[in-house]
Amino acid sequence: MGHGSDPETGQTGLGRRTSSSLTRFAKYDPVVGKYVLKNAEAGVVQQHEVPIEDVCANPEKLKLPWPWTSLLANASSDKDVASLDGFRILARLYYPDRMILGDGPYGMHPNFHG
């Protein structure tokens, strides 16, 4: 049983989710919700469930493909996004270079700049 596990079942918080909890992801793209639940049901441990000491000791083990700099992106685009209350922001989307980072899946990282 690892850190962040349920003492009775040995499962992580994600592992206890089931397909019926897909409603939790109702506002998300259904493909993303199904992907998260599929990994949770398979017992895939997410990085945020691992103690920071273990992450620091083995950073490569938990590393995901990530376009952490625009130099690793092969394209970008600007998109106007509206919130539910009508507030609008301009979002810049970077598309990872698959030749460098592989086919993904890729994480999403929002940066908020003034």
Could you characterize the architecture of this molecule?
By secondary structure, the chain is of the alpha+beta class. It folds into 2 domains: 14-62, no CATH class; 67-114, no CATH class. The protein is 19% helix and 17% strand. It contains 3 helices and 2 strands; from the N terminus they run ααββα. The protein has helices at residues 30-41, 52-57, 98-101; strands at residues 73-82, 88-96. Strands 1-2 form a two-stranded antiparallel sheet. A hairpin with a 5-residue loop joins strand 1 (73-82) and strand 2. The radius of gyration is 17 Å and the shape is globular. The model is unreliable at 1-17 (pLDDT under 50).
What features would you highlight for this structure?
single chain, about 110 residues, alpha+beta, two-stranded antiparallel ribbon, about 20% helix
SSE blueprint:
Layout: H1 30-41, H2 52-57, E1 73-82, E2 88-96, H3 98-101
Antiparallel strand pairs: 1-2
